[in-house]
Specification:
The complex is a heterotrimer.
Chain A: H1 2-14, E1 28-33, H2 48-54, E2 62-64, E3 70-72, E4 80-81, E5 87-91, H3 106-119, H4 121-127, E6 130-137, E7 140-145, H5 152-157, E8 185-191, E9 195-200, E10 211-212, E11 215-216, E12 224-229, H6 233-242, E13 247-251, H7 256-260, E14 265-279, H8 289-298, H9 301-309, E15 315-316, H10 343-352, E16 361-366, H11 370-386, E17 390-395, H12 397-403, E18 412-418, H13 440-451, H14 455-472, E19 475-477, E20 480-487, E21 491-492, E22 506-507
Parallel strand pairs in A: 1-12, 1-13, 16-17, 16-18
Antiparallel strand pairs in A: 2-3, 4-5, 5-7, 6-7, 8-9, 9-12, 10-11, 13-20, 14-18, 14-19, 14-20, 15-20, 21-22
Chain B: H1 2-29, H2 34-39, H3 45-54, H4 61-73, H5 87-122, H6 127-141, H7 144-158, H8 174-179, H9 182-208, H10 211-218, H11 223-260, H12 266-276, H13 279-307
Helix pairs in contact in B: 1-13, 5-6, 5-9, 5-11, 5-13, 6-9, 7-9, 7-11, 9-11, 10-11, 11-12, 12-13
Chain C: H1 11-19, H2 22-39, H3 41-44, H4 76-111, H5 113-127, H6 131-142, H7 146-173, H8 176-183, H9 188-225, H10 236-243, H11 252-279
Helix pairs in contact in C: 2-4, 2-11, 4-5, 4-7, 4-9, 4-11, 5-7, 6-7, 7-9, 9-10, 9-11, 10-11
Chain lengths: 510, 313, 287
């Protein structure tokens, strides 16, 4: 709740006070995005961009409400979970139509979930514990698990590598070629690198009640939403200043002042996510935990964040994996996180590890996100001060995503993530994701966390996981950072969100 | 004559084969993985390997080359890995902005270059001539992307006369689309005007000293007519040749300019394809551009041959 | 072709004649100043090029920081000096590399009739690619290091030089004294080096100067597109590309390196023009 208050406060502060007129139907908005999505099949990709665009087209059984709790979307209600936590019985809503005019029923859901378990990265993760998905009747789906698995509903709710529901006859397509969903907007036209045009789906059946985060009612005020790829961040800033778009996603926070003086208003999402230095625990220098501890001591998050984001208004020096306001927030284990770094301690640890300075520490990064690269530069200086020999490997994003899967090529790679509603979905929690953090300690604490169905107890079980992350240093969380977007003054009803959505949005005076 | 044509034709085929091979080699030794880019940050290594097989990125390089040449002979440039459409249609869609950007830049460059070049030659050694020569050289020294940035800053952001980037939304009219080309064409045209200016000046100097110009003068024709009607007419052939040359250079300039202005043209398609490791698109675009160049050259050679049978290949 | 008319042009004489032309003299002077600044960078530079000072980031030009500071608080003037080293060396290395390939290809096709057709076709094929596109593809293939940028741009510009060398060689080969040398049984390598190579230096020099200018522009373009030299090595191109996002807050970060490019390229063109006028009397009329 506190987090929402923060969002609201930042939102209210930045937008001129407007009378909340009754939303009107109609209008077309152009939304500038960070690029062309690699696919319009949200099962096939974990990229945020794919989720942002396609969540308007397809829907999942569950989604997140404004407090990041799971709430039903295509499901009629929360599932009935058996006492042993192994059977989920999910009632479906009736009368839901696909964009092609056909009705959604349990056969579509079963086929879609099966495709999800086969195609989607997160679906495959779930497939390891799912024993069966079947349909007792036309409006019910039953999922049977091999062992209790608390993150299941979060996995079903997420919008990337998403468990979207599509007509059963399309579920055999791989890659997906018919972009038919149940969402409030449907695909009309797509010109790669120019625009993706979505139009209102008139037969859409909204949930009753009021909008609540991604859940609740979904209103279709706008006639059309066009996503325009603008890969260059400076071009997005210029477009925002010139008022060329109704909404501009993912702007460099340092352009805040410039945006403020322009024709669209800045919107800050605070906090948005966390930059992270992922360590290669499998091979090379960082296979040695003592080296990882030395890096943990050497890095100075304060300077790194300042260089990356310009002003403390846009970041927080914070070692906890989830910032205050999230139920997962805890300070457990964060003592080794030193805002100014501790060069002496790092040097001592390095000496202890027997590092002689001959082998360089290779930091893999890209300029796709300028702040990654800036943090790398500052980190390199601090690491050098502690006695490391450092090699910056600055490559294109395509090369980075390839090279990081090869443990022979890097010691640290830099990435970032939004604060995911379910901690176990974070990259380092998977044994196979680059970094390859595997240890008995990890498995012990994580298995306990994942098997516990009771939300309150899970919060308690999260602290030992965070403790393990700090003790074994599979990654270095740099801090929290805010995201900046820009919005036309007459565009209303858009809630700041890590994956902004445009149902419920409307144009004032339209 | 026929022998010449055949020789030249054979040469062209050899060149095309070389172009095809060069493109394939460059593209395939490129590190980075389209499958990894497509699947997003949290994909596993196994997923990536599976997608590679599906995209035909596995198999030995010889096998891949064989497949690629066979497809090429069938006129199939392949399927874009990233865009989910055939490379030919992706290229066809991007042709419009690139074509008009090149044409407009050329028009702007010529409109500046011809008068300045002619006047420079006519007033050879004058202050105007020296200034024009220096300015032309200065223009050729400015990085076109830098000029583009300044134009965006001033005309699009500050004055708001144009969109900062893009090529109009869905259903944008032809005129609206062309309006998006004004700033990029200006950036590219100004920078390329230098070459044409200097050639115009040189060609005009050549003919201004020729006998018939002097004769025309001595006949008491007005200077204006002497310069434009007689001299310029005769200087036109070399000038046109240079304009043609500049057009080829502009394709290169368009790559950077399209990226600066976010134009969905062939140049920016190649740049983004390189960043996305979209092999078929890089291959296809390079092939089509280089192929066009070779073809146009061939046609020009044939024209020369037709005009002057002494030319031999 | 015209270079043949004065094959024994001595270097010092050429320089003094070059300096006799005011525009070329200005060009030479500018180049000398820039080259000196680059060479003496460690002596002149008030700071270390990689010295970060996050607290004093984006400071405007002042006495402490002549050209201001960049996004990481580094001194822009210092980095400009070090960037001059990289940008000039890259440009120069491209000329050398392109010349080596160009000379080999050009001599081979111009002197040996059998090689002429295949080598010429190869040159034709390489010339068919727009230069920036070919450079982007090559750098992506080889990896974005300074060395590979040099290799890529060298490959891109080599065919132009090869054509120049081939054209000159074709003429020189038929000159009476070269034919005489051949008839006398002088070994081919000796002929190539003593007679042919010597006579192609003049057109090479002219072309080389322009390629130097083009290479500096191309390097900046590649860096701007994000496919060039690793951005932590200061070059004028990488400085512009980093400074772009601070265009209004801290315009100096990209203005000064941009100006450096314009001035250097302009100077190179002035010199190239002067050289062409001197060495190529037919064209001296004034292109």
């Amino acid at each position: 709740m506190k987090r929402l208050m923060q969002i609201f406060a930042s939102f209210a502060m930045l937008l001129p006070v407007v009378a909340w007129a009754e939303p009107q139907k109609g209008g077309v908005i152009d939304v500038a995005t960070i690029g062309e999505p690699p696919t319009l099949d949200p099962m096939a990709s974990t990229a945020d961009l794919v989720g942002i665009v396609t969540q308007n087209i397809y829907e999942t059984l569950y989604t997140f409400d404004k407090d990041w709790g799971v709430t039903p979307l295509l499901a009629a209600d929360m599932p009935k979970v058996s006492g042993d936590g192994l059977t989920y019985t999910i009632p479906l809503r009736t009368g839901v139509k696909f964009h092609d005019g056909s009705d959604m029923d349990s056969a579509d859901v079963v086929a879609s979930l099966q495709r999800w378990m086969k195609v989607a990265t997160r679906g495959k993760q779930a497939a390891e514990v799912i024993k069966a998905v079947d349909a007792p009747d036309a409006n019910t789906v039953k999922i049977t698990l091999g062992k209790p698995f608390a993150p299941l509903l979060s996995l079903l709710s997420l919008n990337n590598a998403a468990a979207i529901i599509i007509p059963s006859e399309n579920a055999g397509q791989d890659p997906l070629t018919s972009f038919v969903g149940t969402g409030p907007y449907m695909l009309k036209d797509r010109k790669p690198d120019q625009f993706i045009q979505l139009v209102r789906f008139d037969a859409y059946k909204s949930r009753d009640g009021e909008p609540n985060g991604y859940g609740g009612a979904r209103k279709q005020y706008l006639d059309e939403i066009r996503f325009v790829p603008v890969p260059d961040p400076n071009t997005r800033v210029e477009g925002a200043v010139a008022g060329q778009f109704a909404y501009v996603d993912s702007l460099p926070v340092e352009s805040f002042a410039k945006i403020s003086s322009g024709k669209t208003k800045p919107v800050i999402l605070k906090p948005f996510g966390w930059p992270v230095f992922v360590m290669n625990t499998k091979q090379g220098l960082n296979a040695d935990i003592r080296i990882r501890k030395a890096i943990q001591a050497a890095l100075a998050p304060n300077d790194m964040l300042l260089a990356a984001f310009g002003s403390p208004d846009f970041f927080a020096v914070d070692g906890a994996m989830y910032p205050q306001g999230y139920k997962w927030h805890t300070e457990t284990g964060t003592e080794p996180y030193k805002p100014e770094g501790d060069t002496e301690a790092a040097a001592a640890l390095l000496k202890e590890a027997g590092y002689d300075g001959s082998k360089p520490l290779r930091i893999l990064t890209s300029r796709q996100y300028e702040f990654h690269y800036k943090m790398a530069q500052v980190a390199a200086e601090y690491l050098k001060a502690a006695g490391f020999k450092v090699e910056l490997d600055v490559v294109e994003w395509a090369t980075l995503t390839k090279n990081r899967t090869d443990p022979a090529l890097w010691d640290i790679y830099i990435t970032h993530s939004p604060f995911l509603p379910e901690p176990s979905l974070t990259g380092i929690m998977s044994d196979t994701s680059p970094g390859w953090w595997v240890s008995d300690r990890k498995h012990k604490v994580l298995d306990a966390f994942n098997a516990e169905p009771d939300p309150a107890k899970r919060v308690e079980l999260w602290a030992p996981v965070q403790q393990a992350i700090y003790d074994e240093v599979p990654a270095f969380k740099v801090g929290d950072f805010n995201a900046l977007a820009a919005q036309a003054p007459n565009l209303q009803g858009v809630t700041p969100a890590p994956w902004p959505y445009f149902w419920n949005a409307y144009l004032e005076g339209k | 004559m026929l022998r010449s044509i055949l020789n030249r034709l054979l040469g062209m085929i050899v060149v095309m084969a070389l172009v095809v091979t060069i493109v394939f080699v460059i593209v395939r030794v490129t590190p980075g993985d389209p499958a990894a880019v497509m699947l997003g940050p949290d994909a596993s290594a196994a997923d990536i390997a599976a997608l590679r097989t599906k995209l035909g990125l596995d198999g030995s390089i010889v096998e891949q080359f064989g497949r690629y040449v066979l497809d090429l002979i069938k006129g199939d440039l392949g399927q874009s890995i990233f865009l989910g459409e055939p490379v030919t249609s992706a290229l066809a869609q991007r042709a419009e902005p690139t074509f008009f950007l090149t044409v407009f830049s050329l028009i702007i460059a010529t409109l500046i270059a011809l008068p300045v070049g002619i006047l420079s030659a006519y007033t050879r050694g004058s202050i105007f001539d020296q200034a024009a020569t220096t300015v032309a050289m200065f223009a050729a020294s400015v990085p076109s992307f830098w000029l583009g940035l300044l134009l965006i800053q001033f005309f699009a952001v500050r004055l708001g006369w144009f969109d900062t980037s893009g090529y109009g939304g869905p259903g944008a009219s032809f005129a609206d689309r062309l309006a998006h080309l004004v700033l990029p064409a200006l950036a590219l045209g100004l920078v390329s005007s230098a070459l044409i200016t200097r050639f115009t000046r040189a060609a005009m100097l050549d003919v201004l000293n020729d006998d018939y110009v002097r004769t025309a003068r001595s006949k008491g024709m007005s200077e204006w007519r002497v310069v434009l009607k007689h001299a310029f007419k005769n200087a036109l052939i070399p000038i046109l040749t240079v304009i043609g040359l500049t057009a080829a250079l502009l394709v290169s300039g368009a790559v950077v300019t399209e990226t600066v202005f976010g134009l969905p043209g062939v140049g920016s398609l190649v740049v983004s394809a390189v960043l996305r490791r979209d092999y078929p698109v890089i291959q296809g675009a390079l092939l089509v551009i280089a192929g066009l160049y070779v073809l146009v050259n061939f046609v020009i050679d044939m024209l020369y041959l037709a005009v002057d049978p002494r030319v031999r290949y | 072709m015209a270079a043949i008319s004065n094959p024994q042009l001595a270097e010092p004489a050429m320089l003094s004649r070059l300096m006799g032309r005011p525009t070329a003299a200005v060009g030479v002077l500018i180049l000398i100043i820039i080259a000196l600044a680059a060479i003496l960078a460690p002596v002149i530079a008030p700071y270390a090029p990689t010295k970060l000072s996050i607290a004093s980031r984006l400071h405007p030009p002042s006495f402490a920081h002549l050209f201001g500071t960049d996004d990481l608080g580094r001194d822009v003037f210092t980095r400009m000096l070090y960037a001059a080293r990289t940008s000039l060396s890259v440009g120069f290395a491209v000329v050398i590399f392109a010349s080596i390939i160009g000379i080999v290809l050009g001599l081979a096709s111009g002197f040996f009739r059998k090689l002429d057709a295949p080598v010429s076709r190869l040159i034709d094929a390489m010339m068919a690619f727009p230069d920036i596109l070919l450079a982007i593809a090559l750098v992506a293939a080889l990896g974005a290091t300074a060395f590979n940028v040099v290799v890529a741009l060298g490959i891109v510009y080599a065919p132009r030089l090869a054509r120049v060398v081939r054209a000159s060689t074709l003429v020189i080969r038929e000159l009476p004294y070269v034919e005489a040398a051949r008839a006398l049984g002088v070994p081919t390598p000796t002929i190539l080096v003593r007679h042919v190579l010597r006579n192609v230096t003049s057109p090479l020099l002219v072309q080389g100067t322009f390629i130097f200018a083009n290479a500096i522009l191309a390097e900046a373009g590649l860096s701007f597109l994000g496919v060039g030299i690793s951005p932590d090595i200061p070059t004028w191109g990488t400085m512009i590309s980093v400074g772009r996002q601070y265009m209004d807050q801290a315009g100096w970060i990209m203005m000064f390196p941009g100006a450096a490019i314009v001035i250097t390229v302009l100077a190179l063109q002035l010199v190239g023009d002067g050289l062409r006028d001197l060495l190529d009397p037919r064209l001296a009329k004034d292109i």
